[in-house]
Amino acid sequence: MVHVPNAPLLAMRGICKRFGAVWALSDVELDIHAGEVVALVGDNGAGKSTLVKVITGVGPADEGVVEWNGRPVRIARPRDAQALGIASVYQDLALCETLDVVGNIFLGHELGGRAVLDEVAMERRAQELDVLESLSTRLPNFRVPVATLSAGQRQTVAIARALLGEPRLLILDEPTAALGVRQTAQFLDLIERLRDRGLGVLLVSHNLGDVKAVADQVAVLHLGRNNGFFSVPTTSQEQIVSSMTGATNNAVAHRRDRWGEVLR
What we know:
By secondary structure, the protein is of the alpha/beta class.
């Protein structure tokens, strides 16, 4: 796919999604650039999960345009998103507790033939994923069942699995919800390293402390619509909360000059 210079990695324009008579998303816009962390925030029912499903192909949009590197694309199925380089880690992590660490990382992407898996190659590849050591949650070994791991260790395994395919955009859904203070700080450091490696990161979170710590931009949804785009360094937490609750109406038109400059 040809890359358009200066184009966002992912651009969404006029995204609409409805379930029967209910409009879950209405004319939603979102930009994510490579090497950028964008936080997606909003109250419960704001449409965050629905928008993530549109991006990952789980629930395609009914209307609107999705662009990848400046070119229109259709994300109708999860495999379409994966082919583009979009990976996601959901809050429930979707790990198989009876399998070991290596088995979870390579689940569905095992190395070797149909009859015999190349366990040695898979374990060696797993050891090369630096994310497994990044949270200081050192694993006893790569063959312990996931059921025996702590919340931080499980989170690490889920992210390692997502990074196995070397994605360009990583979606993290409430990644620190089950982590302690120390593990949260280490995880936020990991997000910064992923950004430094040039990945685009979409951070879906209710924790505005995490958002202020690592995000570059914040996109606010309210009742299925955009209600503000903010630059984190120049925006107070109070402004973001006000936009999330609808106390201030920062509804965004179909055009904007730059992220962080809300057009009223």
